[in-house]
Each structure stands twice: as structure tokens, then as C-alpha cells.
Amino acid sequence: MASQGLRLLKRFYRPQPVGWLFALISAAALLWGAWQLGGWQAREAERGALQALHEQAFERSRHFYGELFKHLQALEGVSLQSCGAAQHEQLYNLRRHLLYVREIGYQPPDGPVCGSGRLPTRSELQHYQHWSFDSVKLWWSPGRLEDPQLPSLVMGRNGYLLASSLTYLRDQLSMPAGIEALVIGPTGEQVLDFIGASISPTDEQRLAMVAPNRLLVGQQRVYFTGPGDTYGMRLLVSADITRLDNLLWQYRLLWTLVALLLAGLLGRLAALQLRRDQSLERALHMALRHGELEVDYQPLVDLRSRRCLGAEALVRWRRADGQRVRPDLFIPQAEDSGQICAITLRVIELVLREQAELLKQHPHLYISINLAAADIRGGAFVAHAQRLLAEHGVPAQQLLYEVTERGLVDVQLASSLLQAQRDSGHRIAIDDFGTGYSSLSYLQQLPVDVLKIDKSFVDTLGSEAASSPVAPHIIQMARELGLKVIAEGIEHEQQARLLLELGAHVGQGWLFAKALDAPSFRAFVAEHG
């Protein structure tokens, strides 16, 4: 059953199925996001459109009321202690110069109206809807819009009256087709409309007034209102919901197309990445079978005498066509796929095949082999190295094992395996020390002989960089622990001298030599041995 499941998984784990799966998962997430984003954009677009209409109409209506109020103040300056022909003439002449005003007059507490023309009496005003703004009153009656005798809009204070018309206000609040503007009174309980159909605001209109400057989506209409003027009057703009529905469809369709395109692209990229990884994995497998892996040797030099003490074995991949694959491409892939263990076995085999005679001729020389985390977990290299060392007659002390801090996740397992190798004669080095998570107590748990200082710390020696004290600190710590120090990446003579003064023993880097192939390394040893 398990083998069938594994076969099914391998059959599925191919670029095309994985690409489709990734595209479907991406599409699901992106479509949800597209739906939300499209809805938000549509609502924002509708809110912006209604807000622009609201601001224009609100400014025009405020100008209308402002003009009426200014005329009322001018009327209050007229002395009307009596109401004769002279007063009628005065009111008539004043009215001709007032914008939006049809008649003006004064209604004393106990007498008839004195005006430029027909004005409603107190009893007639009782049939009007009205608002109060401090001492100013506003009366309106949509039913009087077609009345030739009485006005549909009246403003008054202290007995002075201005007769206007809702027609003027309706013109100020004119809107495109499908959009409606209503004036809401200061109490929020009365609506000034132009047909007399509504007196009190609906529940949706009340909700819209609670949240100014926001879009409220109702059952049939969408609403927008501002904060209101100094008198508390508000303008409520609403539109048929089909406008918003059309915008929702447009924006969501647009973002759905973008989401599907992006999901397809992500699926394609996932398939290409998997194809690349699997292609590299297969190519690396064939490289191991066909012997395309090689070893270069980075010399290790005594900083005081400049004598060659050994080398670090660096794996290289040269394809059949002569092109080299960079280690930073295939090493991570090998670690992910588990092929790194086979590479380690191949490196040990090549080192002893190429340098066994050199090592036997120079007992002080040693070659360091890099171990990965998988090597520590599996330990397959142990028996392989022991067998090859015995076949070639090379002592274990001439093969040093380097482990990175990343390979020491399980400290107990690593300590046990490395101690066994140390007991058999191998020396143990921690590579790139200081770049991971080691500490003094951590080092004391491990069977370590050598610390290798990473190139990044060597580069900052003698500079003002924050990491410049790291290398001296590592050298001092190694001295206290009785460990040797190898400094990597030395490129300048000044670095070599400073490291020697600090107490480092061995160096490697381009100052001494670049990585060499097997014959070139043997020649280097002959010259510097």
C-alpha cells in the first residue's frame, strides 16, 4: 500500500501536474482577492462620484440659502411702522433687486401683511412644512409649486417674510438621471423634497446620515451624505443600485482576468522551477554515474613559515562538453534531494585516488573533507572512508573532516559521530565559524580541533565595520580552548600579518593560491613543502 502511494506521488510530482495544482491553488486565492478588490474599487468609485455631485450641489444650495438670508437681513433694515402706498412702493422697489425672491413683506403681530405682493397669512403658513434655525424659520409646500397665488418656499424672522420658490432650490440640486438629492433638516426627522411624497427619512436614509462621507448600500439605492452646514442641514445624494452593480461587474471582471492570468503565470513558473530542479537532479545523478565530478584543492598554508600544510577538497562539476556548473547551483540542490551524501563519498574517493601517494610522501600534509548535515545524520561516509584509507595505506590523521554550524543541529548525534571519528585519528574542524549559532558552551560539547574563520570576518580586519572585532575574538576563544585557527579568504599580505599577530596558525586564500587541480596542487606542494 505504501509503495503504491509512493509510486502515485512520484507520478504526480512532475512539472505539469504540479504546475496545474499550483495554478489552481493560486487561482482560488487570487480570485477571492480579486472579488474583494473589485468590490472595494467599485464602491470607492461610486462613493467618489456621489461625493463629487454632493459637493457641487451642496455648494449651490448653500449659496441659495445664503442669498435668501442676506435678503432677509436687508429687509429687516426697512422701517415698516405703517403700511401705506409709500411702504408698498418701497417694498416693491427693493424686491426687484433681490435674487431668488418673488415677494417680500412684514406681518405685524396683530395686523394684516404689508408686502410687495401676495404673501401667506399665519393661518396659511400652518399648512406648510417648516424648519427652525435659531430665530429664522423656513416654510415649504411642494403642493404650491404650481399655485399662482401662494409661494412654495418662505423664509422669515421677526415678522419679516421672503417669498421664494422650491423651483429655484430644485434647480440648484439638479442631478443626472437616476440620481436624487434630498435636503434633510437639522433634526434629521424631516425631508424637504419637491413632490411632497416623503416627510420623514426612511431607515436607510437615517443610517446614511449616521455615517457621513461613507457609502451606504441599501436594497434598491446607494446613499452618500456630508457632515452638513452650520445650521445642521444635510444634503443626501442617492443613486439607483444598478449603477453600483454595473461597476461591480466591470471591476470584478477586470481583476478576475488579472487573477487568472497571474495564476496561470505562477503555475507556469512553478512547473518551470520543478522541471529545472528535477532536470538538475537527474543531471547530477548522471554526473555521479559518469564521473563528471572533480576535486580542486585550496592550499592551506602556515602563516609563519608559508609552508603548505594541506588543502581543502572542493568539489567541482565539469559537464561532458567541458562547461562547469557553479557549486552554488548544484550543492543546494544536492542537499535538498539527498544526493549530497553520494557527492561526499565521491570526493573522498577522488581525494585518495589522486593524492594518496602525495600524502604518504608528506606525512605532515592533510586534506579536509566537507561534511553536510545529511552526512552527519546518515554516517555512510565513515565506512567508505575507512575502507579507502586502508586500501591506499593513508593514516586517518591525514583526512580532516569539516562540518558547518548548519550541520550541527542535533548536537548529541553530531558529538557522538564526530567523537568516534576523532578517536580513530581524524581531526574535526568547524567551518565558517561565527556565521551560525555557536557559543562557547556549545563548542565545549563537541570534539573539535580546529576553528575556521569565515572570509567575511577576515575582510573587515582593521576596518571600522561592526564585525571587525569578531576574528580577534574567535582567535582568543580558540586559544583558551586549545584549538587551532584557520583563516579563510586571505587576499592581502596585511591580513596575513595581522592574523599571525593575533594568533592564527593557518591561512588559505588567493594570497597563497587559488583552488588547484590535482597535478597543480602536487606541484605547489613540491615548491612550498
Describe this structure in words.
This protein has 529 residues and is of the alpha/beta class. The chain folds into 2 domains: 15-244, no CATH class; 291-528, TIM Barrel. Helix content is 49%, strand content 19%. It has 17 helices and 20 strands. A hairpin with a 3-residue loop joins strand 9 (216-217) and strand 10.
Could you write a compact summary of the structure shown?
The protein is of the alpha/beta class and 529 residues long. Helices cover 49% and strands 19% of the residues. Helix 2 runs antiparallel to helix 7 and helix 9 runs parallel beside helix 11.
Q: Judging from the principal axes of the Cα atoms, what is the shape?
A: rod-shaped
Briefly note the structural class of the backbone. Answer: alpha/beta
**Averaged pLDDT, please?**
84
Distance between the termini: 61 Å
Radius of gyration: 46 Å
CATH topology of the largest domain: TIM Barrel
In total, how many domains does the architecture comprise?
A: 2
Low-confidence segments: none
Please give the CATH architecture of the largest domain.
Answer: Alpha-Beta Barrel
Q: How many alpha or pi helices?
A: 17
Share in helix: 40-55%
Summarize the main sheet: 8 strands, mixed, barrel
- CATH superfamily membership of the largest domain, which one? EAL domain
Strand order of the largest sheet: 12-13-15-16-17-18-19-20
According to CATH, what is the class of the largest domain? Answer: Alpha Beta
Beta strand count: 20
Q: Beta-sheet strand percentage?
A: 15-25%
